[in-house]
Amino acid sequence: MSFLRRNLPGMLVMGIPLMWIALFMLLPYGIIVTYSFWLKKYPTFIPAFQFGNYITIFTDPQYVRVFLRTLKISVLVSAASFLLAYPFAYYLVFRCRSAALRTWLYMAVIAPLWVSYLLRAYIWKTILGTEGVLNSFLMSLGIINEPSSLFLYNQFAMVVTLTYIFIPFMVMPIYTALEKIPTNLTEASADLGMGPWRSFWTVTLPLSLPGVAAGFTLTFCLSFGDFIAPFLVGGPDGNLIANVIATQFGAALNWPLGSALAIVMLVVVLTIVSLSDRMERKGMTGGV
Amino acid sequence: MAAIIELENISKHYSPTIIGVDNVSLTVEDGEFVTLLGPSGCGKSTLLRMIGGFEEPTGGAIRLADKDVTFDPPYKREVNMVFQDYALFPHMTIGENVAYGLKTFKLDKDTVRTRVKDALMLVGLYDKLNQRPQQLSGGQRQRIALARAIVRRPKVLLLDEPLSALDAKLREQMQIELKHLHEKVGITFIMVTHDQTEALVMSDRVVVMEKGRIAQEGRPQDLYDHPASPYVANFIGTTSFLPGKVSALSGGVATIAAGGTQITAHPDVTLSEGATVTVGVRPEKVKLLAEGETADNVFEGTIAEVIYYGLGLRISVTLADGSKIDADTLLPDKLSHSTLPQSGAPVRLGVAAHNVFVFEGTVTP
Amino acid sequence: MTIKKTMLGTLGLLALTASPVLAEGTINVLTWEGYADPSFISKFEETSGCQVNATYVGSNDDFAPKLMAGGGVYDLITPSIDTTKLMIDLDFVEPLDTAKIEGWNDIYPKFLALDGIQKDGEYYGMPYSWGAIAFMYRDDAFDTPPTSIADLWREDLKGKISLWDDKSAIYVAARKNGDMNIYSLSDEQIAAAQKTLVEQKPLIRKYWATAGELVDLYKAGEVVISNTWAGYQSSLLADEGVKVTEFIPKEGAEGWLDSWMVVKGTPNKECAYKFLNMQLSELGQCGVANVNGYSAANASAAKSCMTPEQFAALHQDDPAYLDSLLIWTPLGDRFEAYTNAWNAVKAQ
Ligand SMILES: Nc1ncnc2c1ncn2[C@@H]1O[C@H](COP(=O)(O)OP(=O)(O)OP(=O)(O)O)[C@@H](O)[C@H]1O
Ligand SMILES: [Mg+2]
Fold it and tell me: Which part of the chain is the ABC transporter domain (chain B) (predicted)?
């Protein structure tokens, strides 16, 4: 009794978050896992324990194809975000002399996070459309003679839109990682005879890798689970895994298959996260 | 000996009001151990960083072995720097850190290995070859930083407060080690410190800086015995200052009215009779006179305060004219209260004539 | 004691905020946009004393998941004729007391004969409005108007074609292949339709998912030919000044019918039946015809409240037109084969 009384505050402090996790994370996953073994049967589905749904996912080429496509799009989005975000963050941390300008630029990249996702995706629709801003611009420059339909409703448009939407998640960790690198390390590298490029390759880049890994993980996982961009700017070949899952839970009324797809997707994402976590931790032992 | 570094009217003005270094000229001989000494913010690091190539001067020229390097980037200069917090690469092993500076030399593998080994042996840490900087103590990191710089066999080694991150014991030990290292490798060392003991212990020559300029430079003992200004006198060692007036001059000897008495001194500067001066006396040169004992100069006063500082006592004495003077004395053989000087007791203090500094004017440091 | 009280209070509050107001005199309808338009619902609310809360669906696929999530929220729903059977089989709806519905016998007999709204001799759905899944083209893009489904496979229209993102794409492709039994396709016929759709994919600009999306696609000049909910998107486009023409291809068009169904165990039966009566009356029938451009299910009500032009335009007294439509039919356990084929096309 006295034990209880003494430990009650501690139990509450630990217990409430644990219950929260159990209730809002483990329970839903448990339900999804359970469903994934059930059987589709008109009009809905019936409890069962069988691996048919998983077998379908790995044998029916349509699911493998969508998984691969989603993987491809996510990798492209992460890579594009990285290629844009790294030089930008590098400029902010090492080259931008004015603190005011730095804050301003940083906010300019981060601020869109406060704007609705849908609105930001719609913006790209108006930019990339056949009668959109990009086409008018290119025509006014005389680069093209008639509007091109190559920019919208295809995988290119999805990569562009997703990159735009998720790039803050690449900029932030890289910026933080670069900012943490002591300037005297790059000075030491120069002092030891390395020119700026070699210093970058041998010191700055390796030391910022934990940030890059975090950025890749975030943008990859966010793109991997996206289903709005395919809907808004994707073309007929734009179906991603999250769209397929949504269809299984909606139109197809096949929750068991949808659940199995969600579990496979979760496994992919968790694998990526743990890989990058290991990389970050490795970076940490090399960290400052 | 030839000059290895020549600074010619070097200035670094960060802005019209923020002046890091102001019109400094300095020549460093090959193989010398020179220390830049001064209080925080006096421009030591800025000067060192300009030699290393990390800052561009706003005026003047820097020559390294007769070659103008004023605007060369660091990686084109044959000087190396030991950074204050060592700046070891955390993502590399000790061996990789030390070998890093050899990459540009395009040496074969075996040469690199032996040179890294030699450098690490020199600092006694060859067994840490495959460890990471984080696994080393502060003193060990310090030595790795040294090895990493020395392995390149630079013409000049720059050290920015290399020992300031170490505890007092280790610092003393490293001072000696660093000095021995300097003797062993024969490279020119330019070190920055704000610790006067460090400067005196280690260097061939000390450059005392004040507000971006050189206040005085010279051998440690010369600075100690012949400070050019109250600033230097107080920065190298401790000095009590008394206002005075020249009452007579004859030959190299001056008679000065100070501390309520007439004292004799051998000033380094030429004075005129009746001039207002400041007299400086180092506490360790002041002797508590026993009954009947006498000296060149004798001050009389009362003890204001007695401070015990381990090795001895510092006694603060108020003189007849109200000015104050400190005297250091070793502890008596038997430390008991009865034999310790007491506050309020009258004392007589003796100072030899050649231990009295005389500075022009009434400057108080 | 006090804790118990607070908890009860909190639970009560939760119940209040979690679901629309459940009080007698208020009915919650899950329906299509326009089906509870204020232009005619306000009047009903005034005269009947029943309040109407409408929640809108974007597709027939929304009904089942919304009702599965937990009962007691909605009183009335309007699934289309391919989904009504599912609602009955899922036991989500209850039989109608047709005696309580005035004008029941004025409903087109063809609709009352449909299987999808009845079971064991009882009616579960009240036919409400109907139309065709017609085809539509942009006038300025064609010198000779298209007449066939095959026009949606024309190479020269590459990147200008759209198709509804729905299993009905299988129906379209099957007809193009000459299979007119679109609601009872064999596995081979479905596979052939799937193949035909995959061939069409490179020509498709975008599969449209919502009415608004199709309107946007035409408006932005992205698309010149597609299928459409006859009467609806074309009138929206006319409002935007985009000239489009609907047509029934020579391979025929599907027809759809929306029916009102009463959710099982509704506590608001009285208002629900008042509402059904209103919807089948001139008020409801012309209400939806005016708002959505759909045809009415009650022949006599339509006759008395529509202008002759509207009456003709909506094919209200055109048995031949009605008969030409391939009215959607529940697919039952073939449903999965159709959706799976369509998903496979999209995955391609
Ligand atoms: N990057 C800079 N921008 C502006 N002012 C600077 C900059 N670096 C140094 N200063 C200024 O120049 C002066 C000299 O600085 P410096 O770092 O050389 O001092 P220091 O003698 O090394 O002092 P410490 O013992 O504290 O290291 C200081 O007043 C400092 O504020
Ligand atoms: Mg400094």
Answer: 5-236
User: Does residue B41 sit within a domain?
Assistant: yes
For B360, phi and psi rounded to 5 degrees?
-70, 150
Find chain C residues with C-beta within 8 A of A45's C-beta.
Answer: none
DSSP A22: I
- Looking at domain C132-254+332-347, its CATH superfamily turns out to be Periplasmic binding protein-like II (3.40.190.10)
Mean confidence (pLDDT) of chain C? 89
Residue A175 belongs to a domain? yes
CATH number, domain of B211, equals 3.40.50.300
Which numbered ligand comes closest to the C-alpha of B42? 1
A217 domain residue, yes or no: yes
User: What is the rounded average pLDDT for all residues in chain A?
Assistant: 89
Considering its fold, how many domains does chain B have in total? 2
Q: Which residue type does B181 have?
A: L
pTM: 0.83
CA dihedral sign, ordered B115, B121, B123, B128: positive
Are B199 and B58 in the same domain? Answer: yes
For residue B179, is it within any domain? yes
Nearest CA in chain B to A283: B91
Of residues B333 and A77, the one with the higher pLDDT is A77
Mean pLDDT of B200-205: 92
**Distance (Å, rounded) from C-alpha C283 to C-alpha C47?**
12
Question: Can you tell me the distance from the alpha carbon of B59 to that of B12, in angstroms, rounded to the nearest whole number?
Answer: 7
Residues of A in contact with B73 (CB under 8 A): 190, 195
For ligand 1, the distance from its centroid to the CA atom of residue B212, given in whole angstroms, is 9
Cβ contacts of A62 on chain C, cutoff 8 Å: 343-344, 347-348
B21 Cβ closer than 6 Å to some ligand 1 atom = no
Interchain CB distance below 8 Å, C336 and A254: yes
pLDDT at A229 > cutoff 50: yes
Cβ B194 under 6 angstroms from ligand 1:
yes
**Atom 2 of ligand 1 has which residue's CA nearest to it?**
B14
Q: Looking at the structure, do residues B97 and B211 belong to the same domain, yes or no?
A: yes
Give the whole-number percent of chain B exceeding pLDDT 70: 96
- Rounded Cα distance between C251 and B54, Å, is 81
Distance (angstroms) between ligand 2 centre and the Cα of B218 equals 21
Best of B56, B91, B97 to disrupt the A interface by mutation (most A CBs within 10 Å)? B91
| Architecture of the CATH domain C3-130+257-324 | 3-Layer(aba) Sandwich (3.40)
For chains B and C, having 3+ Cβ pairs within 8 Å is answered no
B79 and B208 housed in the same domain: yes
Q: So what's the pLDDT on residue C18?
A: 41
CA of A116 to the centre of ligand 1 (A): 47
Residue A96: is its pLDDT beyond 80? yes
Q: What is the CA radius of gyration of chain C?
A: 21
* Domain presence at residue B365: no
Q: Packing angle between helix A117-128 and helix A133-140, nearest 10 degrees?
A: 30
Q: Is A248 a domain residue?
A: yes
Provide the domain limits for residue B279: 238-360
Please check the confidence at residue C287 and state whether its pLDDT lies above 50. Answer: yes
Give the model confidence (pLDDT) of C181-228 as tens digits. 999 999 999 999 999 999 999 999 999 988 889 999 999 999 999 999
Which residues lie near ion ligand 2 (Cβ < 5 Å)? Answer: B 45
Domain with A92, as residue range(s), is 52-116+166-280
Give CA torsion, residues B319, B324, B325, B329, to 10 deg: 90
| Identical fold between C3-130+257-324 and C132-254+332-347 | yes
Does residue A264 sit within a domain? yes
Same domain, B154 and B30: yes
Q: How far apart are CA C167 and CA C339, in angstroms?
A: 6
Q: What total number of domains does chain A contain?
A: 1
Listed in sequence order, the residues at least 6 apart from A34 whose beta carbon sits closer than 8 Å to its beta carbon are: A259
pLDDT classification of B335: cutoffs 50, 70, 90: low
The verdict on B56 and B68 lying in the same domain is: yes
Pairing type for strands C244-247 and C125-138 reads antiparallel
Residue nearest to atom 29 of ligand 1 (CA): B41
φ and ψ at residue B23, rounded to 5 degrees: 55, 60
Mutate to test the interface with B, among A186, A187, A192 (most CBs of B within 10 A): A192
CATH number at residue A248: 1.10.3720.10
